[in-house]
Automatic annotation (TrEMBL):
CC cofactor: Mg(2+); Mn(2+)
UniProt EC number: 3.1.-.-
Domain of life: Bacteria
Gene coding for it: cas1
Subunit and interaction comment: Homodimer, forms a heterotetramer with a Cas2 homodimer.
Single Gene Ontology BP annotation: maintenance of CRISPR repeat elements
Positions of Mn(2+) binding: 173, 238, 253
Organism of provenance: Ruminobacter amylophilus
Pfam families found in the cross-reference section: Cas_Cas1
Protein name, as recorded: CRISPR-associated endonuclease Cas1
Length: 334
């Protein structure tokens, strides 16, 4: 299944015989059967879509996302024939009120995120781990992370302030992320323009590339959450805010490092040649993310495409909310 990203001004998206037709300057540049498409992301102003295409996508459950200048999803078009299950959503809302359950699931998400951040570092340094310069950096990172994971695992709702566990976990997750980015800089795994992680109003091409990659990941997780029947705006860890898909943000944490950070690091030499995040660089990043989603990994002793693993993991998370399954995050092997 393809996740289509359109980011060229003046592009027209239409429908011809059950196929998506992409036109630029009245010339067809690409045709894809709708049966092969999972999401379409519009990442630029000045792009037009036909009503017939929107209608066909709605019927087939293909989500259309619209991104702003900062690559954040600001709107989504979805059909009414969604997979929402009333009993599941009731259980989801009950789980949010259940601090013990929410805390345990949140800890598993955060621990898995940290493990996958570690996997990314080891993926790029496994052949140089004995290097006299890299070894102390990696050992220091491992020690700090091991201590943070112990504190996270011991975190639980406090009888005197039962809701404060979220703030404590988010603070610990933030510390782990800071150490992760600092370690990547020390190991010189990121382009020279990157000094620290920035989201809004960044001038760093590397940070812009990361933000763009996360926006693509967000749309993939959002589609998977919709398929599961859960409410995208009701999270267990991220706080509720108008227009913020909290559950999507919760569940994408596990995949940020491997699916986006790892790809940006692999492309670091190419990114260093760009002065800005232009259309060509966006296309390179989106293609690499798509390739990664199509790559097969081991899951339950079988080789399965990553996008299918993500969907199964989110189904498993939904099962944990209703008490039918135990949730275990997916850790990548380096």
């Amino acid at each position: 299944m393809r996740h289509i990203v359109i980011n060229q001004y003046g592009t027209f998206l239409g429908l011809v015989s059950e196929r998506l037709v992409v036109k630029q300057k009245d010339e067809i540049v690409e045709e894809l059967p709708l049966s092969r498409i999972r999401t379409i992301s519009i990442a630029k102003k000045g792009i037009s879509l036909s009503v017939d295409l929107i209608h066909a996508c709605a019927i087939r459950g293909i989500r259309i996302f619209f991104l702003d200048w900062n690559n954040r999803i600001v709107s989504a078009v979805m059909g009414q024939n969604q997979h929402a299950v009333v009993s599941l959503r009731k259980a989801q809302f009950d789980a949010i009120k259940n601090d013990n359950l929410s805390c345990e699931l949140s800890k598993k998400v955060i621990i898995t995120k940290i493990k996958n951040q570690h996997a990314v570092i080891m993926y790029f340094t496994k052949n140089t781990i004995k290097n006299s310069q890299n070894s102390p950096i990696i050992n220091n990172y491992n020690n700090l992370i091991d201590n943070l994971k112990k504190i996270i695992l011991n975190t639980s709702p406090d009888a005197h302030d039962i809701s404060n566990w979220r703030n404590r976990l988010m603070g610990l997750e933030g510390k782990a992320a800071t150490e992760y980015w600092h370690t990547l800089v020390k190991l010189r795994l990121l382009p020279g323009d990157f000094t620290n992680r920035e989201t809004r109003f960044t001038e760093s091409v590397t940070n812009k590339a990361l933000n763009y990659g996360y926006a693509i990941l967000l749309s993939k997780i959002w589609a998977a959450v919709d398929n599961s029947g859960m409410e995208a705006y009701a999270g267990i860890l991220h706080t509720d805010r108008p227009g913020k898909p909290s559950l999507v943000l919760d569940l994408m944490e596990e995949y940020r490092a491997w699916l986006v950070d790892r790809i940006i690091i692999k492309l670091r030499n190419q990114i260093s040649e760009y002065m800005n995040l232009d259309m060509n660089l966006k296309k390179i990043i989106s293609n690499e993310i798509h390739k990664s989603l199509m790559t097969k990994y081991t899951f339950n002793k079988k080789r399965i495409k990553l996008e299918n693993i993500i969907q199964r993991q989110i189904y498993r998370f939904a099962g944990a909310l209703v008490g039918q399954k135990k949730y275990k995050g997916y850790s990548f092997k380096w």
